[in-house]
TrEMBL record:
SMART domains: HDc (SM00471)
The organism of origin for this protein: Linum trigynum
UniProt family annotation: Belongs to the HDDC2 family.
InterPro entries hit by this protein: HD/PDEase_dom (IPR003607), HD_domain (IPR006674), YfbR/HDDC2 (IPR039356)
UniProt-listed PROSITE patterns: HD (PS51831)
Entry keyword set: Hydrolase, Metal-binding
Protein name, as recorded: 5'-deoxynucleotidase
Domain HD, first and last residues per copy: 103-207
Length: 251
């Protein structure tokens, strides 16, 4: 009887136990343009999501999707890339072009160039498309640094490499981040047939845009054509540039 009473007392006391208040999580830090402050969610939140993904269901409910733990990183990365849509290409801004294109506009048409590229032995078209949409991605953080800014090439590369590393970490690492980093490095080093092709896309897109601004706004943008003269590395790049020059001469 005495044991039963004691057990009853313990049961009653346990019924009034309340869980301690939840630990407040620090607020999500938002990324600030031109800084390396992360926009990721709090560590504890991420760990909790990852743990939930690994915990098997106990009551017949569906387990959380494994991809849910990376969703926050993906949206953080994509939100940072918004800067590419809103940052205007500095060369046009400095020449007082009205409503100049953004960095993303420039990369998009380069991606289309890869899409319509003829089949060429030794050239991977899909890789060209990917490289085109990656090659200026670090400018989401450092902005569009032009030769007239007076920044040494080595310093520009260092700043962009640091920015790219930050973006890959923001994405959460893994195979996709590694692919972006590899494509960017290959382009910077001009170390593959695809990099040489995309380097030509970069120049072709610029002079085509210059021609369009000349036609639309009555500008003289000769310096952009001069800056690319004799610098094309591929037959496609040379042919496309020649076609643009021919149209400019005949206007």
């Amino acid at each position: 009887m005495r044991s039963l009473s004691r057990a009853s007392a313990l049961c009653k006391s346990s019924c009034f136990l309340t869980p301690s208040s939840s630990l407040a999580l620090p607020p999500t830090t938002r990324f600030r343009f031109n800084s390396f402050e992360s926009t990721s969610q709090s560590r504890s939140n991420r760990h909790r999501m990852a743990a939930a993904a690994d915990t098997p269901p106990t009551d017949g409910a569906a387990a959380p999707s494994p991809s849910s733990s990376s969703a926050a990183s993906a949206i953080d990365f994509l939100s940072l890339c918004h800067q590419l849509k809103t940052t205007k290409r500095a060369g046009w801004v400095k020449r007082d072009v009205r409503d100049p294109e953004s960095i993303a506009d420039h990369m998009y048409r380069m991606g289309l160039m890869g899409l319509i590229l003829p089949d060429i032995p030794g050239i991977n078209r899909d890789k060209c498309v990917k490289m085109a949409i990656v090659h200026d991605i670090a400018e989401a953080i450092v902005g569009d640094i032009t030769p007239s800014d007076g920044v040494p090439k080595e310093e520009k590369s260092r700043k962009e490499a640091e920015a790219l590393d930050h973006m890959c970490k923001l994405l959460g690492g893994g195979s996709r981040a590694e692919e972006i980093a590899q494509l960017w490095k290959e382009y910077e080093d001009n170390s593959s047939p695809e990099a040489k092709m995309v380097k030509d896309f970069d120049k072709v897109e610029m002079i085509l845009q210059a021609l369009e601004y000349e036609n639309e706004q009555g500008k003289d943008l000769e310096e952009f054509f001069q800056s690319t003269a004799g610098k094309f590395q591929t037959d496609v790049g040379k042919a496309w540039a020649l076609e643009i020059a021919s149209r400019r001469k005949g206007k």
